[in-house]
Structure formats: structure tokens, C-alpha cells
Design brief:
The complex is a heterodimer of chains A (539) and B (403).
Chain A lengths: L13 H8 L27 E6 L4 H16 L7 E7 L5 H15 L7 H8 L2 E5 L5 H18 L5 E5 L6 H10 L12 E6 L6 H14 L5 E4 L6 H11 L13 E9 L8 H26 L8 H14 L5 H7 E4 L1 E2 L1 E3 L2 E3 L17 E7 L9 E7 L6 E8 L18 E7 L3 E9 L7 E9 H4 L7 H11 L8 H20 L8 E2 L6 H8 L9
Chain B lengths: L12 E8 L2 H11 L3 H4 L1 E2 L2 E2 L5 E2 L3 E6 L3 H13 L6 E9 L6 E11 L8 E11 H4 L2 H5 L9 E4 L9 H7 L4 E4 L9 H9 L7 E4 H4 L2 H10 L12 E10 L12 H13 L3 E8 L12 E7 L2 E11 L7 E10 L2 E10 L2 E8 L2 E9 L5 H10 L5 H14 L6
Parallel strand pairs in B: 4-8, 5-6, 5-9, 6-8, 9-10, 10-11, 12-15
Antiparallel strand pairs in B: 1-7, 2-3, 7-8, 12-16, 13-14, 14-15, 16-17, 17-18, 18-19
The chains are: A alpha/beta (539), B alpha/beta (403).
Chain lengths: 539, 403
């Protein structure tokens, strides 16, 4: 497993602490609290700032980043002194780019139609600059432009760099930012933060290299690695559900829980992203990040405080406690699959190898199921079954906590055995929580049947939840890194997925396609549970 | 009886209405709503697709002493049906000296949150009562509450705090929502009475007048987020709040000043300032009649903090805060913060030793009644900061409360 990386600016060892106390190293800055901040009911307003979007003309920017910023602006969660500087390779002026932005918002904004006055005031704050990532002179021009913006717009030198580009450009952009000094946080000169989109590398080695490259320029506390799954309302609610309710945590352990199932099912295929998916596959695209993030939130110990490092420390502990995935374990406990032609939602769909920009002999997996074991006090002996796949019968992300059976069957005369209790946390769609328990069927005898108590978010809180990008961008602007992944978290997750990919590469060509589109994956995925006397929950 | 099921997504649709003249009759009608197949199985000709879900997150009791207030409150609550489905009782007591009577209109409104979601339905009971019945609101309301759900009392207008009816009603409430800025006269007497209700530690109090000022508090707090300015916060010497008035006679009770007082009270409570001299009307000079406002003195350790709440004739609604000024002196250095309202923004200026050190604007669009009520309702449990501010307001009002 990987070595845990401490943030650069924290005293992690006794020696560091002793040196700090002896005055031989600068102790961490003690911040005074502003008593007027106590209990302010509003979301805290970010400081005046410039959001610098690398890849500002790209798809991610148009679909997610700009609409999220617009929504934050629309709901008065951004400061008045706020500017977006979009960077792209095309040569165009601010006005031309604003026309594009308006068209993008009219297509991708979460709330339509646009509020004309609000949209205009937002779009007026968007500027454009041409920048080739490999043109060093362009970064000098960028530094000059940012200085001018700070002067003209009173943005205070605060900058959020958002890397919405191809991952291959990350290291070069960061190096150039460092070269022209755009990473420096000076006293009174404003903060500098950088948001990096996933994927964070394509294996452990590349993730380490990327972390090293970024770490040469930015401190860990300045880096925000975004995994949008963590910004989803129901994922965040998982923490509230576990640690804000007294009745679940006492039974959240090996004594009461039989096993856990985590499913991330998609009914769609690769949707024109064949070239991208050929290089990633389900294990890199979902298992390494979203699935392991969900697993760590389900399995983590309660953090002592709700601050970014305490939360992430506990998540990393879980990942580090996952039993080593040896080649033998991969053969026994991991199943891969690729969909062939089939029917989804009443329509015929092609197989993966027939998708555009996909190798007709592709060995890329579109489905992964695994049995993971967490070697710690709480979870010893409790298997975590995880699965993710494309072209499954329906779109659904769910965590199912299967409790143990009652120790003694009292109702022997019942025509059916009561099923064990089950708690299902639906992440998407139809967000909610369901608890299954046994109840007596009305009548003279004692027949027991399972019934459910179903809580649906939509009926208790019929309000729109913010999009994950809105939540995460606002957090980054406020300097709250709780929902972002830390360097050691990324590397530890790669330390789990890398051996799987390596073992597959050594095992020779798979028997693909091995599941029909519109089914729940290959038969081997069912066998994975069947041999433990269990089965996947029907979703 | 059931009513036509039309209406688009998120638009509340009236799905049921009936009438009763006794408490038992109302209870029967409420039970009957949910046994109606027309209400619970089909919507818009899509059988079995959008099964209505009866949902309640609380009991909401509204005391509306006039029909127009009841109608306005009902419209606000209907807009909240999807957001906070509640059993709502809108109670209008009338003619206390006449014979006892009771008349209830029962309605169910449903909202389709999303196309693929079940409808969410909630009940509203418009309850008018007269004579002896109207004097015992608690006895009427108690049997109509859904068990185990929190009870929020929204009391628009001038609530008669301290009266037996208020005592009886608030005794069964978990939360009280009022709007101090709508109270008659200066509002100070009622503000003092509201603060005294804090003695009942079960009751959470939300004053919409205080909720409405959130953006001002954000703007003021932001000044002291700057490390260079934070130390001045412990060396305040003067707090001045300017408010709009239409009065030119100098009558201190002519304009409601609950909102300006809350600014001072919030600062006093966050900074642990004690009241040395409560608010008193400043008498106008003999030759210059006109509004002069109020003054008070606070104490911060060994230093005193002067408080001025002063009116300015303005076309803005009476009692609207126009400016909050803070003056601090520390080790021979002076910090002046000036927070002003401009159209849809709140602007902050800070001068350090006479040199402008900050100029920042915060967006502050006027918020709707629905948003404000929703925020008052959404806050789970008590709001300790709001309670602290209200307690400080009670101390600031002091003898003014008796006027």
C-alpha cells in the first residue's frame, strides 16, 4: 500500500512538533476567530476573486463549470467583485466569447429560462484570453492581465485556477503558473488555489508523478482535486445520516451487519466518448474514484471534527485497511465484463465493440464487480461487494447495508422466513433511504412478511438540490477542502486498483463480450456472491 | 369533495375541499381526505403513476386576526407546500363577545415535485371562530395537530404577547415566527415582550425582521474577516444606525425601529457588550423640532460604547436601515466602517486612520415573504445567535419597552 502524505504545512511528527515548540521552525499560524461569524445563517460569501478557467472554451466548462458559477451568482452566493477569466486556444475577444457563454447557458443552465438581468450581470463579468499551454510568453501575459483585473475590479489578488483541460496538460500548466509566480500567496496579496479535474493519473505511477509535479508549485492546502460524486447532496447526506443520528452508528459494525453492497449502474453506453473510454474502462473511470469514495464514506470511523483533514484522514484509513489485492485475489474476487448488443429501455443498442471510436477487438472492461475486505476492528469479516457497469438495465446508484439474521427464529409457523433487515441508501435517482423489516400479515395466524419504510427526499424536501459542481466550486472559493480528494487518498485508491489492472494484463485476453446490454452484468458477478451464500440486491 | 386535478409541475393544485362546523367534524374530514381513491391513485389520466404521498414535516398554525391577513398567509404557505409540506391551520378569531361558533374550510393542495415523483399533498384548515371559542385557541388547535410533529406558530400583525390566549397557544408551540418590523408604533414594547418569551426555553423564536438582515450581518462580519481589522472589533467606541422615517414631528413612536435596534443588539450579543443605559428617545432641541432618534450606552470591559439610532427622512419604507457605522480606536489608531444599502446591494467602506482601506459590495436583493418564511421554518431547532440578539434587544429596549 502507499505511504500516506501529510500536507506540507502541517506538523505531523513529534520531532516536527518539538522543533516548532523550540522555536526552530515557524509554528502553524494561529488564526483569531471573528466572533461576528458565529452562527451566520447564510452561506459564507467568498472573498472577491478571479476564477481562471483553463480550457474555458471546452465542453466541461460549457456544461458544468460556467452553469455552476451562473447558478451561484443567481443565488447571490458570489461576491460583487467577481470575474471569470476563460482561457482557450482560439483567438477571439471578450464580446465574442460572451455570446458563446450565453448560448451555453441557454442550453445547460439548471434553471431556465435565464433571468435576463441576472444573466447579463453575470456574463458581463466574463473575460476571455487566448492562451496556448505550451507558450511560455502567454503565461507572462496572463500574469499581467490578472494584475490589471485585480486593479480594475478590486478582486484582491484572490485566484482560483480551474483546470478543465485534458489531463495531459495539467503538469505543464502548473509548471508555467509556478514559473510566472502565479502560485505565490503573499501577506495581504490574496489566496491562490487550484482545482484539478479527475482523472488524477491513469495508474499509481502517473498519479504520483502528477502529485509531485503539482506539489512542486502548490502546497497541498492550495490543491482541490475534484470528484463531483462527493458534491452530490445524497453523498453529503451520508455523513449526516451516519453521524447525525444516534440510532445507526451503534449497529454500524461487524456484530450487526452481514455485508454491504454498493452499486453504480448506468443504462447508457459510452455516448460518443469511445476514445476516452478505451483508455480508462470502468475500473479507472469509476472504481478508482466514485466507488471507493462511497465505500470509504460508508466504512469510515467518525472524524473528531468536521474539518477537511480530519474527514480525509478517516477516509484514507479505510482505503489503507482494504486487504491487499493480490493477483490470486483478482482472479477470485474481481469480475470484469464488457457488454455485447442487447436491449435497454425497450430499444436495441449496439455492443461496446460496435460503438464509435472503439477497437472492434477491444479488451476494455465496461463492468467491474469486486469483493473487498476491510481489515479493521469494525469491519473484520464483513465483505463489501461493489459493482459498476454500463448498459445495465437501469440507472441507479445505491448502497445497501444488509443486516444479520435474527439469532433465533421464533415464528416457525410463518409460511415464509422473514428476510434480514436491510437499509438501502439511494444516491441517484429518486434519492432516499429505505429500511426493510418484517411485519405480521393481518389475520389469525402468524405470517411474517417484509415491508419497507421508504423515505424519499423529493416528498420531504421538494426543493432542488444544488448541482455537485455548485457545491464544490463554492467550497473551493471558500477554502473548504472537505469534499475534495487529498494526494494520499488518490494514491491509496490507485494502490487498490492498479494491481487489478496489472493482473488482468497478465491474464491474457478476456472472454469479451460476456454480458448482454440490458442485463446486470456477467454471470460471474452473480457467482461472486453466490459462493458466499448471498445474492445481489434486486434494484 | 374532490376537485379537478390539473396544474403543472411544482404548481400547487387544490385537490380536495370540504367544510365542517365542529372539531369532530374537522377530524372526520381530515381522515376522509386520505381514503379517497380520486386523491391517491391517479393524476392527469395517468393511472397508478403519480400516487399522492401525504407528507407533513410540521404543524403550522397561523393566527390571522383579519381575513386579508389570512388570505395573504395562505398564499405564502401554498407556495411552500412543495418545500415544507405541513398541516396548516389558519385561525381567525372574531367577535369575542358574541356567541360561540366555529367554521372550518378544509383543503388539500398537492404539488408534483418532478414528473417522475409522486405528488406531495398537505392539508390546510381555514378556521374561523367567535365568542368564547375564539378566546381559547389552544383548545381548538390541540386536537387538530398531527402527533409528534413540531408545532410552528406564525403570528403576523401585532401578537398580544402576555395575553392568556397567547400564553395558551405558545404553550403548545415549538417555534414562534413573527415579523417585528410590521408591529405598530416603534415596536419596542412588543420587542421587549418577545424577548421575555425566551424564558420559556422550549420555544424557538424567529423574527423575520432579524432574518431579513442576514446580508447586512454578512457584510459587517466580512470587515473583520481581514486579520488587520479583526483586533479593532474589541475596541468599538461607537455604533450608529440610521433608519428611514416619514415622520417630521419628532414623535419617537411614529416609526417602527425594530430592524435598526436588531443591528445594535446583534453586535452587542456577539461581542458580549453589556447595556449600561438602555435606549432612550433623544429630545429634540427646542428650536429644531423633528425626529432625533434614540441613544444608549453599552460597556465593553472598561470602555463604553455609544449607541445612536437616528432617523432620516427618506422615501424608503419607514424603519428601513439605511446605514450602519462602526467606530473603533485601538492604540492610537482609528478604524471606521460604514455599511450602506444601495438598491440591491449592501456596500462596505472602511477607513483606517482616515485612509480608505476597503470598498466592497454585497448583493442584497429584497427577499420575498415566501423565502423569509421558508428560512425561518428551515432552521432546525433554536437559533442561538438569533436568541442572543433578541435577548440583547430586550436589554437595550429596557424601559422603552414600557412605552
Amino acid at each position: 500500500m502507499t505511504t500516506r502524505l501529510a500536507p506540507k504545512d502541517a506538523h505531523r511528527t513529534m520531532r516536527e512538533l518539538r522543533l516548532a515548540h523550540a522555536g526552530r521552525r515557524k509554528p502553524p499560524q494561529k488564526t483569531l476567530d471573528n466572533p461576528l461569524r458565529d452562527g451566520l445563517r447564510l452561506e459564507r460569501m467568498p472573498d472577491p476573486c478571479v476564477v481562471v478557467v483553463f480550457g474555458g472554451t471546452g465542453d466541461l466548462s460549457a456544461r458544468k463549470v460556467v452553469p455552476a458559477l451562473y447558478q451561484l451568482w443567481r443565488t447571490n452566493l458570489l461576491p460583487h467583485e467577481f470575474v471569470v477569466l476563460a482561457l482557450g486556444r482560439r483567438d477571439q475577444d471578450d464580446e465574442g466569447f460572451r455570446t458563446e457563454i450565453r448560448a451555453g447557458l441557454e442550453r445547460f443552465s439548471r434553471v431556465l429560462p435565464l433571468d435576463e438581468a441576472v444573466a447579463s450581470s453575470f456574463i458581463d463579468r466574463i473575460l476571455y484570453q487566448r492562451l496556448d499551454f505550451d507558450d511560455a510568453g502567454a503565461f507572462d501575459a496572463l500574469a499581467a492581465r490578472l494584475t490589471a483585473i485585480d486593479h480594475d475590479q478590486a478582486t484582491g489578488g484572490n485566484r482560483l485556477y480551474y483546470l478543465a483541460t485534458q489531463p495531459s496538460a495539467f503538469s505543464e500548466i502548473v509548471a508555467q503558473l509556478g514559473r510566472v509566480g502565479l502560485d505565490h500567496e503573499t501577506h495581504g496579496g490574496g489566496w491562490r488555489r487550484i482545482v484539478i479535474e479527475k482523472p488524477f493519473g491513469h495508474d499509481l505511477e502517473s498519479a504520483r508523478r502528477l502529485n509531485r509535479d503539482v506539489g512542486k508549485v502548490f502546497r497541498e492546502s492550495q490543491i482541490y482535486r475534484i470528484d463531483h460524486y462527493l458534491g452530490k447532496e445524497t453523498v453529503r447526506n451520508l455523513l449526516v445520516f451516519r453521524f447525525g443520528n444516534g440510532i445507526f452508528e451503534p449497529i454500524w459494525n461487524r456484530r450487526h451487519i452481514d455485508h454491504v453492497q454498493i452499486t453504480v449502474a448506468e443504462s447508457i453506453g459510452v455516448e460518443g466518448r469511445g476514445a476516452f473510454y478505451e483508455e480508462t474502462g470502468a475500473s479507472r473511470d469509476f472504481l478508482q474514484n466514485h466507488l471507493l469514495q462511497l465505500l470509504s464514506l460508508v466504512a469510515m470511523e467518525p472524524p473528531a471534527t468536521f474539518d477537511a483533514n480530519a474527514l480525509r484522514d478517516e477516509k484514507v484509513k479505510v482505503l489503507r485497511a482494504i486487504q491487499d489485492v493480490t493477483p490470486e485475489a483478482v482472479r477470485h474476487d474481481v469480475v470484469r465484463g464488457q457488454y455485447g448488443p442487447g436491449w435497454v429501455g425497450g430499444a436495441p443498442v449496439p455492443g461496446y465493440r460496435e460503438e464509435a471510436k472503439v477497437d472492434p477487438l477491444s479488451e476494455t472492461e465496461t463492468f467491474v464487480a469486486a469483493r473487498l475486505v476491510i481489515d479493521d476492528w469494525r469491519w473484520s469479516g464483513v465483505p463489501f461487494y461493489v459493482r459498476v457497469g454500463k448498459r445495465l438495465p437501469k440507472r441507479s446508484t445505491e448502497i445497501a447495508i444488509q443486516f444479520k439474521e435474527v439469532p433465533h427464529r421464533l415464528f416457525v409457523e410463518s409460511s415464509s422466513d422473514p428476510e434480514p433487515n436491510l437499509l438501502a441508501i439511494r444516491i441517484q435517482p429518486d434519492e432516499g433511504i429505505m429500511l426493510r423489516f418484517g411485519a405480521k400479515i393481518p389475520g389469525l395466524g402468524i405470517d411474517v412478511r417484509s415491508v419497507t419504510m421508504d423515505f424519499t427526499y423529493g416528498s420531504a424536501f421538494a426543493v432542488d438540490s444544488p448541482d455537485a459542481y455548485e457545491t464544490l466550486i463554492l467550497d473551493a472559493l471558500l477554502g473548504d477542502a472537505s469534499l475534495f480528494t487529498r494526494a494520499d487518498e488518490v494514491e491509496t485508491a490507485w494502490g487498490i486498483v492498479d494491481p487489478i489492472i496489472t493482473a488482468w494484463a497478465d491474464d491474457g485476453p478476456p472472454d469479451f463480450p460476456n454480458y448482454e446490454a440490458g442485463t446486470w452484468g456477467p454471470a460471474a458477478a452473480d457467482d461472486l456472491l453466490a459462493r458466499d451464500g448471498r445474492r445481489w440486491r434486486r434494484i | 369533495m374532490t376537485v379537478g386535478a390539473t396544474g403543472g409541475a411544482a404548481a400547487p393544485t387544490l385537490r380536495w375541499r370540504s367544510r365542517a362546523r365542529t372539531i369532530e367534524g374537522i377530524e372526520q374530514e381530515l381522515a376522509r381526505i386520505w381514503s379517497q381513491p380520486d386523491l391517491t391513485t391517479t393524476v392527469d389520466g395517468s393511472p397508478g403513476r403519480h400516487v399522492a404521498a401525504r407528507t407533513s414535516v410540521m404543524n403550522l398554525v397561523v393566527v390571522a386576526r383579519r381575513p386579508e391577513i389570512a388570505e395573504r398567509c395562505a398564499a405564502t404557505i401554498q407556495a411552500l407546500t412543495g418545500r415544507h409540506p405541513s398541516r396548516t391551520l389558519i385561525v381567525s378569531p372574531a367577535d369575542p363577545d358574541g356567541p360561540s361558533w366555529l367554521d372550518a374550510h378544509i383543503q388539500a393542495h398537492c404539488v408534483l415535485p418532478r414528473e417522475d415523483a409522486p405528488e406531495v399533498c398537505a392539508e390546510t384548515i381555514f378556521l374561523s371562530c367567535g365568542g368564547e371559542s375564539g378566546r381559547h385557541l389552544g383548545a381548538i388547535i390541540a386536537p387538530l395537530l398531527i402527533h409528534d410533529l413540531p408545532v410552528t406558530v406564525w403570528w403576523p400583525g401585532d401578537p398580544p404577547f402576555g395575553s392568556p390566549a397567547a400564553h395558551e397557544l405558545l404553550g403548545m408551540a415549538d417555534r414562534l415566527v413573527v415579523d417585528g418590523s410590521s408591529w405598530s408604533e416603534s415596536g419596542l414594547a412588543r420587542l421587549g415582550s418577545l424577548a421575555r418569551l425566551l424564558a420559556d426555553q422550549r420555544l424557538s423564536i424567529f423574527d423575520i425582521a432579524l432574518v431579513r438582515q442576514a446580508r447586512w450581518r454578512e457584510a459587517i462580519a466580512s470587515v473583520f474577516d481581514m486579520p488587520a481589522f479583526l483586533p479593532y472589533l474589541r475596541s468599538l467606541r461607537r455604533i450608529a444606525v440610521t433608519y428611514a422615517t416619514h415622520d417630521e414631528t419628532g414623535d419617537p413612536t411614529a416609526t417602527n425601529i425594530v430592524k435598526p435596534v436588531y443591528h445594535v443588539a446583534w453586535l452587542a450579543s456577539r461581542l458580549d457588550l453589556s447595556v449600561v443605559r438602555p435606549l432612550e428617545a433623544v429630545p429634540p432641541p427646542k428650536r429644531q423640532p423633528g425626529p432625533r432618534g434614540f441613544a444608549a450606552t453599552l460597556r465593553d470591559g472598561r470602555s463604553q460604547v455609544a449607541v445612536v439610532v437616528r432617523p432620516v427622512t427618506s422615501p424608503m419604507p419607514g424603519g428601513t436601515t439605511l446605514r450602519v457605522e462602526l467606530l473603533a480606536e485601538r492604540r492610537g489608531s482609528e478604524l471606521r466602517a460604514d455599511v450602506t444599502a444601495e438598491a440591491e446591494t449592501v456596500r462596505v467602506h472602511v477607513w483606517q486612520d482616515g485612509v480608505q482601506a476597503l470598498d466592497r459590495a454585497f448583493q442584497a436583493p429584497r427577499r420575498t415573504d415566501v423565502d423569509l418564511l421558508a428560512e425561518a421554518i428551515e432552521a432546525g431547532g433554536a437559533d442561538p445567535v438569533g436568541h442572543d440578539a433578541l435577548r440583547a434587544a430586550g436589554a437595550l429596549v429596557g424601559s422603552a419597552a414600557t412605552r
